[in-house]
Amino acid sequence: ALDQIDALEALVRRLPPPAGDRSSWADLVPRGALRGIPLDPAGTPYELDPVTGNVSVSPQSDLHPMPDEARKTLK
Question: How far apart are the first and last CA of the chain?
Fold first, then answer.
């Protein structure tokens, strides 16, 4: 999931929303950047912060909480 999150955040940075809009999966799917809302390995949709573009595991996911400290050392 950590590698997927890094790849999704890179995608969001490469394809920012139109001026005045916020980041959303609904914007990226029609632009052809994604086939659908991305799912974590447990099958739960990732969350996308509309302001920062940060991607995270949903609190409803079996993978939540993610090891934030491990993620920081991987970057």
Answer: 14
